[in-house]
Amino acid sequence: MSLLSVEKLTVAFPGQVAVRETSFAIAPGETLALVGESGCGKSVTAFSVMRLLPPNARVASGRILLEGTDLLALSPAGMREVRGKQISLIQQEPMTSLNPVLSIGLQIAEVLRRHEKVSRKQARARAIELLDLVSIPDAHRRIDDYPHNLSGGMRQRVMIAMAVACHPKLLIADEPTTALDVTTQAQVLDLLDDLRHRLGMAVLLITHDLGVVAQWADRISVMYAGRIVEQAGIKPFFAEPLHPYSRGLLGARVDVEADEHYSRNRLSEIPGSVGSALGEAGCSFAPRCPIAVPGCRIAPPPLVAHGERAVACPRVGA
Question: What pLDDT sits at residue 266?
């Protein structure tokens, strides 16, 4: 049984659709990467799972099941019991996610006192343990620091400590290494993977960095214009992507030997910009697709199984 199952989720804003009939599942202890260009609907999908959409957005259809319970059917009070306890979220920018006028210790303790029956003293002691867990040096001293006293990497570690404080079953990491240098990025991702194994939680990793996906994810879902266009295990995906958009994403990567790449090859690009999720005229990727035919513009293609993979392209396997 899947831990999280998103079934035909459609999220709409006034005059536009951000996510359209999107489906995917995450098994317990698994890391699923959700990738795609900016504007494809990745973050909207994450906030839909947390039910933290802005007031002008609405879930038009679909279900979001956590161990069989439809999160969309829960009352606001019921959903507040799920957030932070069973599902946690790490957002892109910790400086804007942390409260600048409260110490990091108080912010971690707030999560614990909201969901666990602990005293202030017990919450503080547990907060120090969590800071140690995420490798904040001198945790007993740094617990009284404010967010502006910490580096970007340390602030992200504080966000991780808050997210795992109540041992959630699912951690949603929305671009968790944005604005971090390469070394700190690797340290944060190593930490997340270590905590995943130690705490037995699943991770939904939202990113546009395929290098990160190759190293830390178990499976991948490629999103384009609000739809999932390919789902696969990591090894088969990187060995042979099937959807034209997936091929374009991999083709746009710089090789490990960057100098040699630029001296011998032209950097590949996908022409045009991200299409609409409205689904009014066939496949949204058709205007940018190098193998599109007139039939691609008739109707949005469904996600079709190809062995252990699934692809939304009628030309795959034709």
Answer: 65
User: Residues 230, 304: contact at Cβ < 8 Å?
Assistant: no
Structure tokens, 8: 């035909």
Q: Residue 205 and residue 225: Cα distance in Å, rounded?
A: 18
pLDDT in tens, 234-265: 999 999 999 999 999 988 776 555 555 455 66
Question: Cβ distance 185 to 177 under 8 Å?
Answer: yes
Single-letter amino acid code for the residue at 158: V
Q: Cα separation of 168 and 137, whole Å?
A: 24
Token pair listed for 179 = 């604005």
> Which pTM value belongs to this model?
0.91
Instruction: State whether residue 73 is helix, strand or coil.
Output: helix
CATH fold of 4-255 reads: Rossmann fold (3.40.50)
Distance CA 226, CA 18 (A): 6
Least confident of 165-169, 187-191, 269-273: 269-273
Sheet of 58-66, strands arranged across:
16-26, 4-13, 58-66, 69-70
CATH 3.40.50.300 domain position(s) in the chain: 4-255
Query: Which tokens belong to 140?
Result: 């007993």
Place of tokens 């990113």: 207
**Two structure tokens written together for 272:** 């045009």
Q: Which residues contact 318 (CB under 8 A, 6 or more apart)?
A: none
Mean pLDDT of the chain: 90
